[in-house]
# Entry
Amino acid sequence: MGSFRDVVTTSKEHLQILQDGLLQTINPKRVIIAGAGLAGLTAAYLLKNAGHDVVVLEGNTRVGGRVFTVREPFEEGNHWEVGAMRIPEHHHLVLALAEKFNLPLIPYISSSDNNLIYVNNRLVRQYEYDENPELVNFGLSEDEKGKTAAELLEEALRPFYTLYINSNEEERQRLKEQFEPYSMEAFLRDNPFGGSLSEEAVHMIKVLVGVVGFPEMSFIDTFEAIISTTFSDVSFFQIEGGNDLLAQALFHEVEEEVLFGERVIRIIQNDSSVQVITRRNDGVEKTFDGDLLITTIPFTAFQFIDVVPRHSIKPDKWRIIQTLPYVPANKVGLEFSEKFWEEDGMEGGSLVTDLPYQFIFYPSDAIGQPGGGVINATYSWGNNARLWVSLSEEERIQQALDFVASIHGEKVYETFIKGLTYNWDEHPYSAGCFTLYAPYQAASYPAVIKRPEGHIHFAGEHASDVHAWMEGAIDSGVRVALEINNGEEAG
Ligand SMILES: Cc1cc2nc3c(=O)[nH]c(=O)nc-3n(C[C@H](O)[C@H](O)[C@H](O)COP(=O)(O)OP(=O)(O)OC[C@H]3O[C@@H](n4cnc5c(N)ncnc54)[C@H](O)[C@@H]3O)c2cc1C
# Structure
């Protein structure tokens, strides 16, 4: 497999700030931060240490947002990552934070030659498919036959990648503008560099590379956010004991500043300050006064907030808030008393399928150790994820259990303990999984999304250049803390 990983690079300035902190301020501000996910916690940590007066309003009863490690009701020592599960080796901000807080990292084995492919009713190993792609018959055209999905995708994307990677900032912006209208599907079917692929080949790529369900999304963003990482030769890590330990470590630095159960329902801006109104579950409303507000609330959930006056956010930003797409995601976690998957050659790694389960991810921690574990028995995105909303909790678990049994046999039922499901569309504080631009958005949206509006600054994964990853959330937290420490206001 080739590598497209250098498409997105970490800002060296932001890395330095994360490691050394911001300059101490001589002009401290009262900063309200909405959301205690990684973006909000990063900003709170940096601004507090620089001498600002910070309060973090979190609607939920926990920190971490979309970094969500579930331990109970599983057996002691078992956990399930409902949100972020793996850290790519080149996501330097996440790794720097983990190092700063002495959090041990262990490998996350995303794929291996032993990976399973179950498509078109055939079950094969990755190495078997790589030797003979015709084992899973996608009905490719004559000139495509004998090539793997990875090879076809590599050929299709390499010319664009070469241009992109060798471009300076201005040239890259022009490339973004030029290729902005393309969806991933449109680019592959009608490749502007020649060598367009058949519908069958594109379907094979979508299934096996895992972009099935959102082929209509922006070519540029799908390339930058998903393909550059998951398709490339990238190693992954996870935090030993659960990725939420990263959010917990940040939280310990700002524990007194975080208020839980404070759901932001209204933001009032005036000439010199901002007021934020929250409503607790018991109906009690509170008002918080600040010089500035950082909102890290995903634009999906942000639409339920009343902004007064509404025109204190400019119309082009409202349009983006209302139209920024979020990809749906569904997971089913199943706990077993024995790691039967290891006997079947799955020490970490994954199964990919053209069925609505899309992926199984097998645990890469505690490999070879006695006892059971929790597998991500279903991890589906896009249209596949949406399908699961139609099923009850029990049906989702049964469906996933039966699927795992169809791969691994009767021992699945014999060792099953319990299951949990999570559909991110149903989560009131993010109403979706992660941002991916649609065509006509990748070049023009980022600057508008990041632009402060009056006393409101915008952070979060959606307000970053690394959609779908913790790296983006942290990067946006650093950016916004820097903006405020530098005294930058809306233009
Ligand atoms: C299923 C899934 C898998 C993922 N896999 C990976 C992965 O493997 N690796 C990786 O690096 N990244 C992964 N990500 C992405 C990563 O989790 C996110 O990019 C990152 O956690 C986003 O952080 P954030 O602070 O921007 O937003 P969030 O974590 O969403 O934080 C926003 C916070 O705001 C709070 N909030 C929302 N509305 C209100 C309100 N009205 N009032 C007050 N508070 C509010 C929320 O409760 C939340 O705590 C995954 C995400 C999901 C959902």
Remarks:
- The mean pLDDT is 94.
- The radius of gyration is 23 Å.
